């Protein structure tokens, strides 16, 4: 079933399960780029600063397998548990003729697993947009004057960098898209936004927070030394690459700062925040598929190939990838292996990344499990766009075979879609 935004179906589906989404605490994160990294930072920071405290995380799309969308203490839920809960929800969907989409069923699966596993706090990444995304069924927590949680719910919201993406669903201007992303802000619940956003975006979010009586914190770090209530944390403690991770980490640390009093007063035996623990949480963060270097084994009979994997799939993400590549490789030629999801605006993605000296191998990823609406752009169409920027373009529809066209020593980058990155990582796992 194609994407169909709205909250009525997910609300009905969850009501049949006893409303599990009302029985845990949450941090809710939206944005165009960076929200997955923020969710990874938040999860790692919560785990390093608590004991006997169950932390859930729900992100999409899955990276390798469907069940890795839902994690408990940073470990993917077992496929057996995931499949059992998912099947129960699919049966409810059919029995009551709810007509829920695949993503709504996945969202309900995550909330039910968090409830069954007695999760204390779950970090939730918006699927698409925010206001009408099925994850936005969660409600704000109620916190008393002593900063104690008296009704579980969303403790804070975070908004990362907003750019042009999914215009057909979210609007054709940054202001319209920002309005959708800001739809996750909850009444009287603090919100944190990346201060490097466009001024129009910041104004939309500020207005929405004011309308709901919510404090809005605009985070713009002055240097790599990020000031927190626990002490200074240097951005370089993070293993995640890219200049933009300074903003993502700053947003994450500010959210942790804000929810710390709520957790300390509600879970005094479980919360052990300190500067040392915060730094450990930053050091331990993992978020594969984003500026990830890999000695790729694409064929068990051939030597590994050094590649850089990045899920950049829109103009804003392509710009950040371009900055990183320029810093890493200067102006040397790059071999790009590219596939793009059908319906994406190709021009901002391709024009930002590619120069005449680069070598481009155009491919397509296969079907995405449980996401039948996701299709790869036809390589011939992608090639026609790329030919505007370089004549050095070849097509190889089979992902595995693209690496046979790469010479050892070439700077090789796999990008254009997280679905392509996922397929490459599975290929690597199958050959190691």
UniProtKB/TrEMBL annotation:
Q: Which GO terms describe its cellular component?
A: cytosol; mitochondrion
Highest taxon, organism lineage: Eukaryota
Which InterPro entries does its entry note? Answer: Folylpolyglutamate_synth, Folylpolyglutamate_synth_CS, Mur-like_cat_sf, Mur_ligase_C_dom_sf
- GO annotations under biological process? one-carbon metabolic process
EC code: 6.3.2.12
Pathway, per Swiss-Prot/TrEMBL?
A: Cofactor biosynthesis; tetrahydrofolylpolyglutamate biosynthesis
The protein's matches in Gene3D superfamilies, at most eight in alphabetical order, are given as:
Mur ligase, C-terminal domain, Mur-like, catalytic domain
Q: Print the keywords alphabetically.
A: ATP-binding, Ligase, Magnesium, Metal-binding, Nucleotide-binding, One-carbon metabolism
The family classification in the record reads: Belongs to the folylpolyglutamate synthase family.
What name does UniProt use for this protein?
Dihydrofolate synthetase
The species this protein belongs to is Wickerhamomyces anomalus (strain ATCC 58044 / CBS 1984 / NCYC 433 / NRRL Y-366-8) (Yeast)
């Amino acid at each position: 079933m194609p994407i169909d935004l709205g909250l009525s179906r997910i609300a009905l589906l969850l009501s049949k399960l006893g409303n599990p989404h009302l029985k845990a605490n949450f941090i809710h994160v939206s944005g165009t780029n960076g929200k997955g990294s923020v969710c990874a930072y938040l999860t790692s920071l919560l785990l390093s600063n608590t004991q006997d405290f169950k932390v859930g995380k729900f992100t999409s799309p899955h990276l390798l397998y469907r069940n890795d969308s839902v994690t408990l203490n940073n470990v993917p839920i077992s496929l057996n548990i995931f499949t059992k809960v998912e099947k129960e929800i699919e049966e409810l969907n059919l029995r009551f003729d709810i007509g829920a989409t695949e993503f709504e069923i996945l969202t309900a699966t995550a909330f039910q697993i968090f409830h069954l596993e007695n999760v204390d706090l779950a970090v939730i990444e918006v699927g698409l947009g925010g206001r009408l995304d099925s994850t936005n069924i969660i409600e704000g927590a109620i916190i008393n004057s002593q900063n104690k949680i008296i009704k579980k719910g969303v403790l804070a919201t975070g908004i990362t960098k907003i750019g042009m993406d999914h215009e057909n669903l979210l609007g054709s201007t940054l202001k319209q898209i920002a309005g959708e992303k800001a739809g996750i802000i909850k009444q009287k619940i603090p919100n944190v936004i990346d201060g490097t956003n466009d001024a129009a975006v910041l104004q939309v979010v500020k207005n929405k927070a004011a309308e709901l009586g919510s404090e809005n914190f605009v985070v713009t770090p002055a240097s790599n030394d990020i000031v927190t209530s626990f002490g200074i944390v240097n951005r370089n403690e993070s293993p995640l690459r890219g200049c933009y991770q300074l903003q993502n980490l700053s947003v994450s640390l500010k959210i942790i700062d804000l929810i710390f009093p709520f957790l300390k007063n509600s879970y005094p035996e479980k919360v052990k925040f300190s500067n040392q623990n915060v730094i450990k949480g930053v050091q331990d963060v993992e978020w594969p598929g984003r500026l990830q270097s890999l000695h790729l084994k694409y064929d068990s009979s051939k030597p590994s190939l050094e590649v850089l994997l990045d899920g950049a799939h829109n103009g804003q993400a392509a710009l950040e990838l371009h900055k990183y590549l320029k810093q890493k490789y200067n102006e040397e030629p790059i071999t790009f292996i590219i596939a793009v999801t059908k319906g994406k605006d190709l021009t901002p993605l391709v024009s930002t990344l590619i120069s005449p000296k680069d070598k481009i191998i155009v491919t397509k990823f296969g079907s995405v499990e449980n996401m039948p609406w996701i299709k790869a752009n036809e390589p011939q169409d992608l090639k026609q766009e790329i030919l505007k920027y370089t004549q050095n373009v070849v097509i190889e529809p089979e992902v595995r075979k693209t690496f046979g066209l790469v010479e050892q020593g070439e700077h090789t980058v796999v990008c254009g879609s997280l679905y392509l990155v996922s397929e490459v990582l599975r290929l690597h796992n199958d050959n190691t």
